Amino acid sequence: MHLRVTREALAGIHASARASAAKECCGLLLGYGAIEEAHPTANVHPCPARHFEIDPQALVDAHRARRAGGPEVIGYFHSHPAGSAEPSATDRALAAHDGRVWAILGEDGVKFWRDGDEGFEPLSYVIEDR
Questions:
Q1: Across the strands, what pairs with 89?
Q2: Domain of residue 51, CATH code
Q3: For 18-47, what is each residue's pLDDT tens digit?
Q4: Which of 91, 88, 98 lies closest to 118 in space, CA to CA?
Q5: Which residue range(s) make up the domain with 75?
Q6: How many domains does the chain divide into?
Q7: Are the beta carbons of 9 and 36 closer than 8 angstroms?
Q8: By C-alpha distance, which of 120, 125, 118, 84 is closest to 104?
Q9: Predicted structure pTM score
Q10: Rounded CA gap, 32 and 70, in Å?
């Protein structure tokens, strides 16, 4: 089974990274079954050039919106401006192992990962037009 991602969501990840320049961008992956939107959030980490931390209020707001009928929080995205799209040692150490999807944009493109009990596993995906 493949993860389904819209072309618009992929474009949103790339746009967020371009807007952040040399700093790590981050945000939420939202949708109804498929990843339909990459919603950028503030990176509130004190060292955004090397790390990311999603603004907690943005996450709270997304979960509240879900309870009101909005899209599901399928996962998260962030960039590695000067690295690969593989989970870093920091990503692995700080992961919640909650089964959510992570999209990482690196110099080698976007790769998707599931953050499971045993760590990150790569996910294949198909791009959909909506």
A1: none
A2: 3.40.140.10
A3: 999 899 999 999 999 999 999 999 999 999
A4: 98
A5: 3-128
A6: 1
A7: yes
A8: 84
A9: 0.96
A10: 9
